[in-house]
Design goal:
This protein is of the alpha/beta class and about 425 residues long. Helix content is about 30%, strand content about 20%. It is built from eleven helices and 20 strands. Strands 9-7-5-2-10-1-11-15-19-20 form a ten-stranded mixed sheet, with helices on both faces. The radius of gyration is 21 Å and the shape is globular. The two termini are about 25 Å apart. The structure holds inosinic acid (IMP). The site of inosinic acid has 21 residues, from helix 4.
């Protein structure tokens, strides 16, 4: 049985959580493959909003197994808070949530290092979520990390102490004003580790391999977005993992040949949270309207998101790198009421018009060239069938499909599970 893959095609916050939740009933296993609690996957159903950070978005469905894959970095403290929330909602996760032994742990000092590194960068800061993601992946690739499987060893706390001591020296080296009480943070950490240990730790690559042999269906759930990929994103303003399709192979241990459908999720416009270039960013009333109507505030940090027109150059790039087979357009409802809509179809770059994403997309290098579309005024949020969508929206959709040569299979018209139109 094949593995399907679901990814964000922009700078994250495309609405992956909602779509995983919508699709979960088609799958036996939902598996997160990278990132950590920097993600904020929002799901809305039965009038309730749920935000998940590390736990896969299939957790609210009784029948699915939810795997935190080896490519994920786990902060036990945040993980425990997520579990506590599930407890208050009477979600029984004990048997349906499993964790790869090869996933790495975020230590309290990783979070402190993230904060120190960002503070030392001053104006050049990445705008990290400060969840310790970068330092944890640095320890992973530096071969110093502590993994979930280590928690089963008697001497893991010795390894912990050695690494935490090294981190403290590094924090001191940054020479920034950072207020913290490590004893308190460690008490919280070790208590949370005990909670984590109440869940099943597994050899996840073998588990997934067997599941495939048994004919089970698997959905790999990405976090962040393609333009935040450590290799292909807008470096250095990126996250520290491979958010693109290849990341699912390394982050789960599934082979490239086993991947079948690649679902690419994008917003009908563009948003970005944190620093870094954003060619179609708006600083006017249109941008403010998108932010207000779309409630564009980070699900993890609460920071306001920067908003702009859809960037087809960047979207095409993301589709190519990921091998997207089906597109899903989110938040179409937010564009209702705009008289004119713009889509960036090429860039002016060094005096030439280009339609690929160049090495450098800073504003001094790249000027977006737009194609304009008529807007629509209809409220989409109550619509439930593709045939009812306004003609102007269909023109917008047809244009994107023909430019990208990939079908748009879902149009989302609101945050609720039910506000999902299949085509
Ligand atoms: P980090 O992953 O916390 O180190 O943050 C690096 C960059 O990625 C920052 O610009 C963050 O705002 C951004 N980022 C990380 N996770 C997400 C996400 O889930 N959605 C949107 N942006 C994110």
């Amino acid at each position: 049985m094949a593995v399907d893959l679901l990814l964000g095609l922009q700078w994250g916050d495309e609405g992956k959580g909602k779509i995983v939740d919508v699709l979960t009933s088609n799958y036996d296993i939902i598996a997160r493959f990278q990132g950590g609690p920097n993600a904020g996957h929002t799901l809305v159903f039965n009038g309730m909003k749920h935000v998940l950070h590390t736990i896969p978005s299939g957790i609210f469905h009784e029948k699915s197994t939810n795997l935190v894959g080896n490519g994920v970095v786990i902060d036990p403290v945040i993980f425990k808070k997520e579990l506590d929330k599930l407890d208050t909602q009477n979600i029984d996760y004990k048997l349906s949530l499993i964790i790869s032994r090869k996933a790495h742990l975020i230590l309290p000092t990783h979070r402190l290092l993230d904060a120190a590194s960002e503070a030392a960068k001053g104006k050049a800061k990445i705008g990290s979520t400060l969840k310790g993601i970068g330092p944890t992946y640095m320890d992973k690739t530096g071969r110093n990390g502590i993994r979930v499987g280590d928690l089963e060893l008697d001497n893991w706390t010795e390894k912990y102490r050695a690494l935490a001591n090294k981190h403290q020296a590094m924090i001191d080296f940054y020479d920034v004003d950072l207020q913290y009480n490590l004893n308190e943070l460690e008490d919280e950490f070790f208590a949370a580790v005990e909670t984590l240990k109440s869940l099943a730790f597994i050899d996840s690559e073998a588990y997934l391999h067997n599941a495939q042999s048994e004919g089970k269906s698997i959905l790999a759930e990405g976090a962040q977005g393609s333009l935040l990929d450590i290799d292909f994103g807008t470096y250095p303003f990126v996250t520290s993992s491979n958010t693109t399709a290849a990341g699912a192979c390394t982050g789960l241990g599934v082979s490239p040949g086993s991947i079948k459908e690649v679902f690419g999720i994008f917003k009908a416009y563009t948003t970005r949270v944190g620093s870094g270039p954003f060619p179609t960013e708006l600083f006017d009333e249109d941008g403010e309207t998108m932010a207000r109507v779309g409630h564009e505030f980070g699900a993890t940090t609460g920071r306001p998101r920067r908003c702009g027109w859809l960037d087809l150059v960047a979207l095409r790039y993301a589709c190519q790198i990921n091998g997207v087979t089906q597109l899903m357009m989110m938040k179409a409802d937010v564009l209702s009421g705009f008289k004119t809509l713009k889509v960036c179809t090429s860039y002016r770059y060094k005096g030439q018009e280009i339609n690929h994403l160049p090495y450098n997309i800073e504003p001094e290098n790249v000027t977006p060239i737009y194609t304009e579309f008529h807007g629509w005024s209809e409220d989409l949020t109550q619509m439930d069938h593709a045939s009812t969508l306004p003609e102007a929206l269909m023109t917008y959709i047809d244009f994107l499909e023909s430019e990208l040569d990939i079908p748009i299979k879902i149009v989302s018209v609101g945050p609720d599970r039910k506000q999902t139109i299949f085509r």
